[in-house]
Amino acid sequence: MNTRFSSGQLRKYFIMGSQNCHHDPLQLLESALSAGITSFQFREKGEGSLTGNDKLVLGRKMRAICARYGVPFIVNDDIELVEPLKADGIHVGQNDVPINELRQLFPDKVIGLSVSNKNELANSPIQLTDYLGAGPVFNTTTKSDAKQAVGIEWIKAIRNEYPDLPIVGIGGITINNAASVLEAGANGVAVISAITKAKDITEAVQYL
Ligand code: 3NM
Fold first, then answer.
1. Crossing angle of helices 52-69/25-35, nearest 10°?
2. What sign for the dihedral angle of Cα 154, 159, 161, 166?
3. Of 19, 74, 143, 152, which is best to mutate to test ligand 1, by the most ligand atoms within 8 angstroms of its C-beta?
4. Which of 10, 78, 123, 173 is 20 to 30 A from 32 (CA-CA)?
5. Domain map (residue ranges) of the chain
6. Domain 7-207 belongs to what architecture?
7. Cβ of 114 below 6 Å from ligand 1
8. pTM across the whole model
9. Phi and psi dihedrals of 113, rounded to 5?
10. What pLDDT digit, counting tens, does each position of 160-186 carry?
């Protein structure tokens, strides 16, 4: 579809903010990177998350660590962070800045969009995106306002309609069910708790 992002970079897509961590988020990120995650999304959002300058400062540190590993650094939602953090891209949901606007603002950045149902898929300018986040595949307690789980059927449905589109499954994905998401046609799995709550991060990333 484009040269900004290869679908292989979706394979192990780690998402995190300091609110997801019991320990030092920078150390956790470093462990996940050295274990082999293929993309990172900075999602500093929700209860207990940092705002303003604190968010920016943490983002800069995380950005620098990802750069050392040559792993794409994507920001969640916040268009104000893209340039200051020199992010490789931005991931948005259905109620964030519209994709048309986003593509005008950031012609050369990776743009990811969440889609949860056929209606959203039909009404989204897919051709302006670099990948779709499909979910929540399974029930998740990590995102308080997550929609109803859509199952791997949703991955199959998108894959059926768009054979070549980069798709990453998200929501409730663990080392035990990741394979089913890939088998359904996703190029990768996007996870928070499967890594942030893992006893052994290296092992978790390997099993994913
Ligand atoms: N987005 P975990 S589900 C950030 O469905 C996010 O769009 C979702 O966390 C969506 O891997 C989700 O711990 C939370 O379930 C993913």
1. 20
2. positive
3. 143
4. 78
5. 7-207
6. Alpha-Beta Barrel (3.20)
7. yes
8. 0.97
9. -135, 135
10. 999 999 999 999 999 999 999 999 999
